Amino acid sequence: MGKLSRKKGSAGETIAANYLAQKGFQLICKNYFTRYGEIDLVMKENKTLVFVEVKFGREGKCGKPLEWITKRKINRFVRAAKEYISRNNLYDIPVRIDFVAILQTESGLKITHIPNAFGEQAEPMAPEEH
Fold first, then answer.
1. Residues 6 or more apart whose Cβ sits within 8 Å of residue 110
2. How far apart are the C-alpha atoms of 48 and 36, rounded to whole Å?
3. Does 45 reside within a domain?
4. 39 and which of 12, 32, 44, 48 could share a cystine (Cβ 3.0–4.6 Å)?
5. Which domain holds residue 27?
6. Total number of domains in the chain
7. Chain segment 17-64, per-residue pLDDT in tens
8. Is 70 helix (H, G, I), strand (E, B) or coil?
9. Within a domain: residue 10?
10. Phi then psi for 25, rounded to 5 degrees?
11. Both ends of the chain: CA-CA distance in Å?
């Protein structure tokens, strides 16, 4: 990833974290790295641990926000979330995965928050069998 892409991604993550904080979410950490990839934001909403994938793009150049997430990316993100849960021994709390798309338009930013974006239920995740 280039320096400009990282800078844009970091700006998008900050915008998303602030937006979700205004909705009552608490930021746990930003840019959590695992062997499966990065989790942009780890947040908490009430008693639910929320893993957030953030995408930032310009109107007309990137397609629709949900098209920015591939099946492979979803699978890697779920694995990264499970690794976070395992490392932190958080098997007994509800979790879910949200998506935040930030679209830069001529009139400003359009933020779309999709809770439970990939259909993962807000329930405790069991450890993976090896």
1. 59, 102, 103
2. 22
3. yes
4. 32
5. 3-114
6. 1
7. 999 999 999 999 999 999 999 999 999 999 999 999 999 887 666 666
8. coil
9. yes
10. -80, 150
11. 31
Tens digits of residue pLDDT in 59-104: 666 666 667 778 888 899 999 999 999 999 999 999 999 999 998 8
Report the distance separating Cα 25 and Cα 115, nearest Å: 12
Structure tokens at 19: 């937006």
State residue 27's pLDDT score: 98
Residue 129 lies in a domain: no
Question: Exposure of 29 by Cβ count < 10 A (0-12 exposed, 13-18 middle, 19+ buried)?
Answer: exposed
- Give the angle 55-58-62 at the CA atoms, nearest 5°: 70
CATH number, position 91: 3.40.1350.10
Residue 129 has pLDDT above 50, yes or no: no
Residue 120 lies in a domain: no
CB of 32 closer than 8 Å to CB of 90:
no
Angle at 58 between CA 57 and CA 60, to 5 degrees: 125
